[in-house]
Each structure stands twice: as C-alpha cells, then as structure tokens.
Amino acid sequence: MAESGQRSDGREDDDSARSEERQPPKADETLHLRVDALRADATMQLRVPPSPEPPAAGGRAERRRSARLPVHSRATGAATAALDRLRATAGPRLAPLAPYARRLKPLYPRPGRTGWRRWIPSWRQWLGSTLSGFVLLGLFLVVAYEMTDIPKNLNTFATQQDNVYFWSDGTPMARTGWVRRQDMPLKDIPEQVRWAVLAAENASFYSDPGISVKGISRAVWRTIGEGDTEGGSTITQQYVKNVYLNQNQTLGRKFTEAMISLKLDNKMSKDDILEGYLNTSWFGRGTYGIQRASQAYYGKDVSQLNAGEAAVLASMLKGAALYDPTLSAANHKRAVARWSWILDRMVDIGKLTPAQRARYKTFPEPLRAGRVYDTGKQSDYLVELAQQYAKKAGHISDRDFDLGGYQIYTTFDRKRETALTDAVTKARKQAERGHAGAAKTAHYGAASVAADGRILAVYGGPDHRKQGYNESNAATVQAGSAFLPFDYAAGLEHGVRKTRGGPPTPVTPETVYDGDDGVAVTTPEGPYWDRSGRKVTAHNDGNKSYGQITLGKALAQSVNTPFMQLGMDTGLDKVRETAVAAGLLDSSMGPQVPALTLGNSTPSAIRMASGYATFAAAGMHTEPYSVRRITRNGAAVHLSTPAPRRAVGAQVAEDVSQALADSLRTTHPAAASGPAAAGKAGTTEDDTAAWYAGTSASVSTAVVVYRMDLAKSLEPLPLKGLAGTSADDVPYGIWAHAMGLG
Description:
Elements: H1 14-21, H2 27-38, H3 60-67, H4 71-94, H5 98-104, H6 123-147, H7 156-159, E1 163-166, E2 172-176, E3 180-181, H8 191-201, H9 213-226, H10 235-243, H11 251-267, H12 270-280, E4 282-284, E5 287-288, H13 290-298, H14 307-316, H15 320-323, H16 329-348, H17 354-357, H18 379-393, H19 398-403, E6 406-410, H20 414-434, H21 436-439, E7 442-450, E8 455-459, H22 484-494, E9 512-514, E10 519-520, E11 522-523, E12 526-527, E13 537-538, E14 548-550, H23 551-556, H24 561-570, H25 572-582, H26 605-616, E15 620-621, E16 627-632, E17 635-636, E18 645-646, H27 650-667, E19 678-683, E20 689-696, E21 699-707, H28 730-738
Parallel strand pairs: 1-6, 3-5
Antiparallel strand pairs: 1-2, 4-5, 6-16, 7-8, 7-21, 9-14, 10-13, 11-12, 15-18, 16-17, 19-20, 20-21
Helix pairs in contact: 8-14, 8-16, 10-11, 10-12, 14-16, 20-28, 22-24, 22-25, 22-27, 24-25, 25-26
C-alpha cells in the first residue's frame, strides 16, 4: 500500500501539489514583485514582470496554464478544432468526389506521356481550371459588388457652381466663383438636346446595366497591352468618374468605376443619372454643364438650343481641344464631320426623322469667343451690393452661397449705370487736369434709386480691386444743406410749438421765418446756449441775409437760418424721426443738437437718393434694394422684398417736391426741362463735401464729392475747388448727365 502523500505510481498527490501552490509569497517578496512590475527602465517604459514558471502537475494547474496562453494561440486552437469537426461532417459526403478531384489534379510530368506532351494538361484539367477560374471570378465580382459603396461625398468641383448676376433687362452682367457651371433640371433641357448627347456617347443608355463590358475590356487591353488608355465608358460610368472619382486612367480606378456604376444604376433612375451627367460634364471654354456650355458657345439658354446646335455641344464631350471649330481649320473640319455623324446617328436610333435631319444642312457656327461675363472694375461694386442683399433677403448662408448655382436678377439698369459711370469718369479727368494735387485724394459717390426702392445705378469708385469700399454706400461725410428738405418735411408734417407743452401750430410753405445771417436760435424759454456757454447762431452760405422769407422760398434758395429755427420749433426728435422714415439710416444721424438741422448727419449716396425718392413717391418710402429675383438651378428662392410704407403725408411730399423744383429752376434754369425735375445742392460749412440730390421721372439721384486721404486718416479734407463753382457745379453736372438732363 502506498505511503501517505504518494500515489501508487510514485508521484505526489494532487492535494499536496495544490497545497504548495497556494502558499502565499513572503511579504518582502510580494513588495519587491509589485515594485519591480511598476519600476521604469532606462527607456522610460513600464517593466513587464516575468511570468512565473508553470507547475509540473496537471489538473487545475494545467487549465490555468491554458488560460495564460496568448489570445491568438487560443484562437488557433479553436479554429483547428472547428476544422476537425468540419472534416468529420463533410468528409463522408465529399468522399465520392475524391476520384474526380484526383483526375483534375495536375501531375507533372504526366505519367504515361513522353517528350513535351508530359507537360501539357489533359482536357479534363483544362476544363476544371477554366470552370474554377470562372467560379472564383464570379465570387470575386459578387463580393466586390457587395463591398462597394456609393461615396457620399461628391467631388468639390462636381457640386460647386458659379453665381450669375443679371442686369434689370435680363442680360448677364457678371459671374462669380471658381467653377463655371450652372445646374439645369432635366425637364428644362429639350429632348433633342438630350438625345444628341446620347447618340454621341451612349445610345443604349436607357437599356444598359450602367457599364459596357466591351468598352471596359477594350480599355483594359489598351492600358495593359499598349500602355495607353481609352474610354468606351457608358454615360453612367462617365458620371461616376465626374462626381465620385478622380480622372486618373488606371485599372484600379476603372474597376471601382464599374462597380459603383453597377450599383448606381440600381439605386438611381436613368433620368437622374442623365441629369447629373449633363450638369457635371466638361464642355470646354472653361465650362461645366450644358447650360454654361450653351451660353459660352451660342450665347443662349439651353432651352433655346435646336438639334443642330446640340450636336455641336455633344461633339465637345469628345474633347473641346479637338472639336472647338473656332480654334483651328483642322478642328473645324473634325467638328463638322462629327456634327453630321451625330445627326445621322439620331436618325438611326429613331430620335430624328429624315425630314427633320434635312433641315440641318448648314453647320451652326459657334461664337468666336465664349461670352464670359466676368466682373469688371465698376461692376464689382454692383456685384458686392447685390451679393450682400441676396444673402440677407434670400436667407442664404455664406456656405450655400459659395457653393454657387444662384441666378441673381438685379435691379441695375445698364444704360443708367453707363451714363452715371461716364459722368463721374469725365469729372475725375477734369479734376486731374485742373487740380492735380487735390485730385489724388478725391472721392466721388453716386447712386440712382427709383421711387419704388429699386437701386438703378451706383458709382462705387474707380476700381474695386484697388479700392475695396463702395463710395456710393459709404457714410463718411456730412450732408450739409442737402439735409434741409427733411427739416422742411418735419415742420410741414408735425407743425411747430412756440410754447413748452402747448398745442402744435400748422406750418405751410407760406409760413415766414427770419432769413438773416447770424440769427440766434431760440427755445420757448429763450436763447439756446451750447456747452461752452455761448449762444448758438445760424449762418447762411456766404453770410448772406435774406430778411423775412417764406419756408418754400427759403428751401428753393437754400437759406439755412430759417430751417435751424424751424427744427427747434418742430422738435429735433421729430426732425430725426422724419429723416429716418424717409430713408436715412438711424445709425448715420448726427447728434441731436441744433446742428442736426443743417446736416451734421452722414448719409450715403444711396440713402440720400432714397430719401429724396420718398418725396417723389408722394410720401411713400420703400427701402432701397438691389435684387428683384433669385433662382437656384431654375427653382425660385424666396426673397423678402421691401414693401412701401407711409413716411410723410402726400401733401407734405408735394410741397417739398415743389420747393425742390423751384430750387432747380432758380439755380439751373436752362437745364430744368425734365418731367417733374427737382433738386438741390448741398454744401458743408467747412467745405469738405459738396452734394447734389434730386428727382426726375420718379428716379432720384444723389452725388457727393469729397476729399479724404485714406492712407492717413478718415478725416475729410477741404475740397480746394474740386466741386467747381456755382456756374460749373461738379456734383450737379454729374447728376444732370446721369438723369439725362445735361
């Protein structure tokens, strides 16, 4: 009988082994073990303590050793076990096929053969290899198809478009953006235009699976065999290349293109694919998409193209460098031949009748140069105004606007813009000849605004690329005596109060005020004192006195002193309120002191013109706006357009307009021949600005001339004769020419 603690085979009992294994290490050893495990070595890496030696005994210790094996070792063991089970299950079922499999297995050299025949596989081996290849290829294609996803992010250039701006008559004015492309819905592209492209590129488009096996095979053969590349792609493949992939002609890109094309053909309708293709393809002359190509080659919208012109554009898809007929005689010959072939092809596929084909005998010559509507020196200011307004009124984010695709139909009148620009340009040249030194710092701002708020023309500066800010929209200099009509309107609208808290007294054009120079400004309590303790007095231009004068005549003759007192009697708050209601911005209004009545406010030319337009509109004011309609890829964008509102009474507006008409007749009797022409000059006390503002035929124009050295400060400088004389008033000359009265 075996001794205690020993098995009959002489090994220690398991319990004894486990007892030894469970003995805890000494406290000192444990401490050293933990410290060594966390102590950093010379490379500042945590030291990994060595694994303890596994016990020699089996049983539970063996299982713990198995648990300590690396994960990949355990996974390998599990895989081996699974493979064994598969063999046990499938082996009996596959056993009958073993003889056939052995026959297909190539034995080299083949037994029973001599010479070179020993190295040639049998027909069974050839058949087996071929069938296996097809099966593997099929499996590969199925897996590749399932693993291929349609990219969610399109190429940037495939989605980015340009924004096109139009004059008020609908003709293109300018475009902005890096990519010249405008999307068009398929419904807006004539059917013959679509089929001209399909006839040229992919007549079987509506029936094919999205790829051309023949075309892909040809491309692969040329790429591998001749080191060249070739297309032969379907329209779906070309669209995938345009919007999802790069333009590199590699086998990998062609394979990805084919997989995406197959999946896209199952996910999208054919019409959607065709629409995307027509809007993203390169047509030459810097254009993407058939809409911009139509404008570049024929100067018309794609909806106006006929089949002959469409065939020319379809030719460009083959390569504009080879088929643009305006580039060379050889190009012209190729273009005519391909144009004729495309039309014949349309007949072959039943999309053009022989009778219709017979109409296109003469090649439709494209424009010699594409009509590119890039911004120019002056039109940059127009684009800037329209862009700011379009974003605000159309609720368009900067990101969406930069992606493009917008058609912005502005209010700018091409003829008025030309007339205004020519007038200012002429004045600039005269200033350079007569006042060379002062002309270097001269600035001219001008704007024409219709009575219904439309901004018809602006002069923003000589060159937007050199001077970024828009002088027509700059609130930099005081209005001076050009502000007097707002004083007059406030008095007529609200009346005056001679006593504090008393009832208002009506004011009419016949109301008399003191027109003498140096008259002290009074309040119901007495003279008005400024902060320095001096009485405030009003002064006329040239310190001229006019005696007792009616308000109507005072405005016609630009007498200042009556209007300073009128403003005090009406209330400076009422004057401010009236000016803002008429169109001036509250932010441009000057301090509410007596000088407010003499134009210490700084309106822009646009706002001054808008304010005078209110009087021409019978007292109704409409906020000035520069965009009348916006579309994006043909779809209308909601635009918040301003509505007219009552600023002053109709009779008040008529009285002001009458006084302004008298002013124009008084100062320029020979030129005041326009329909309901009215206007007034404006000067400042320190001769830093000269204005002329007035209306004719429901259009108001304001012109300002001033000096400012932007390199030094924003302080206005004396004009030094730049504004001319009373006989040769420069602002008036610009105004009269712009209004067609000069």
